[in-house]
Amino acid sequence: MRISTLTIFDQSMSSLNRQQSSLMQVSQQIASGRRVVNPSDDPQAASQAVQVSQSLAINEQYADARISARNALAQEESVLDSVNDAIASARTLIVQASSDTLSDANRASVASELRGIYETVIGQANATDGNGRYLFGGYQDGSEPFVRDTDGSVSYVGDSNSRAVRVDASRLMPVADNGEVIFQSVSAGAGYMAVAADSNQGSITFNGPQVVNANDPDYGNAFDITFSVSGDDVSYSINGGAAEVYEAGQPIRIGGLSVTLEGTPADGDSIRMDKAENLNTDLFATFEKALAVLEQPASTDAETAARKNTLSNVLREFDNSLDNVLTNRASVGARMNELDVVDSVAGNRNLNYEQTLSGLVDLDYVSAISEYSLRQIGLQAAQQAFIDIKGMTLFDRM
C-alpha cells in the first residue's frame, strides 16, 4: 500500500503532539503537587474534592465562630467573678452592720462603703464586650440593660433572650446570659425566707426558717403567721387557722419548716414565710433595702426589730444571689469546656477531610516521576522515529 509523504508527516506530528501533551500534563502535576490539576484529569475525583473542600471550609468557619464564642464567654466569666467578689464583700459588711455594738454613725459608715459596692455592681451589670455591645442585655445589646428610675431604683430594660452562636453544625451555644437571669433571679434550690410586714409595730424578730422535713405534705406552700394581743395574752395563727399561745424563743414548726421568734409583737403584726423565688429576687433591690435601714437611725424597739429583720433578710438574699451568680458562672465554665471538646472533635474531623482530599487530588511523586521519565522516553522515541521516517525519500538517493 502506498502512503503519501503528507500522511507520514501528519501522523508523525500527531504522535509528537500527543507525547508532548502527555509530558506537559505530568510536568504540571509535578509542579503543582496535585494529581488532579484540571477536572478533566479525573472528573469523579474532582467532583468529590469540591464537596470535601466545602465541608472543610464550613468546618473552618465553625472554628472561627468558636473563637468568638470563647472570647464572649471569657468576658462574661470575668464580669461574674467581679460580681461574685462584690456580693461577698457586701455580705461581710451586712454581718458587721448587724452587730448590736455599732452606733448609728458606724452603720452610716458601713452604708457608705456598701453604696460604693452597689455602684460597682451596677457598672458590672452594664459591662460591654469591648465592641460597644452590652453583655447582659439579651438581643437589646445596643443600650444599657439596667437603668435608674426616678426614685433611684434600678430596672432591667433588656429582653429575656440570650445571644447564641452556632459553634458546630448541631450546636447553637448561648454566649451571653441576659441580666434577668444573673441579677434578678435565684436558683431553684434557694429555699424559704421569712419577711416581716412593713406595718409591724412590735419588736418581733425571727431566726430562720430552716427546713426540717422537705417531705411534709404542706412543704412548698406559703405561710402567714399573724399575732393577736389582748391584754397580757399573746397568740398567733397560721394562715388564719386556730390560735396558738406565743412563747418567745420557742420554735414554730409548720409545713416542714421551723422558725424561732423573739421579742414582743403588737396586735396585727405578721410574718410571711415563702419560697425565696416568690419574694425579692432582685440583687439591686436588696442593696437598696440594706442601704435604707443602715442610713436611717433606729430610735424605737419596733424600728430596731425592723432593722434586724431587714438585715437578716438581706443576708439571705445576698446568699441566694451569690449562689445564683456562682451557678451561672459554673454554666459559663461548662460551656467553655464544651467548646474545648467541640474543638477536639472538629480537629479530628478536619484531619479526616484533609486526608480524604489528599487521597483524591494529591500527587504520588514516585509514580509521577516514573511516569515523567517514561513520557520523556516516549517523546524521544517519537522524535527519532520522525527523523528516521523523514529520511526515507528517493531524493536522498539521487
From TrEMBL:
The domain of life for this entry's organism is Bacteria
The residues covered by the Flagellin N-terminal domain are 3-140
Q: Which NCBIfam families did the record assign?
A: flagell_flgL
Report the locations given in the UniProt record. Bacterial flagellum; Secreted
Looking at the UniProt entry, the stretches that span the membrane are none
- One Pfam annotation, family name? Flagellin_N
The answer to keyword Secreted applying to this record is: yes
Tell me the leader sequence span.
none
The answer on whether this UniProt entry bears the keyword Secreted reads yes
Protein name listed in UniProt: Flagellar hook-associated protein FlgL
Q: Which UniProt keywords apply?
A: Bacterial flagellum, Cell projection, Cilium, Flagellum, Secreted
Main subcellular localisation: other
Q: Which InterPro entries match?
A: Flagell_FlgL (IPR013384), Flagellin (IPR001492), Flagellin_N (IPR001029)
Q: Which family does it belong to?
A: Belongs to the bacterial flagellin family.
Designated gene of the protein:
flgL
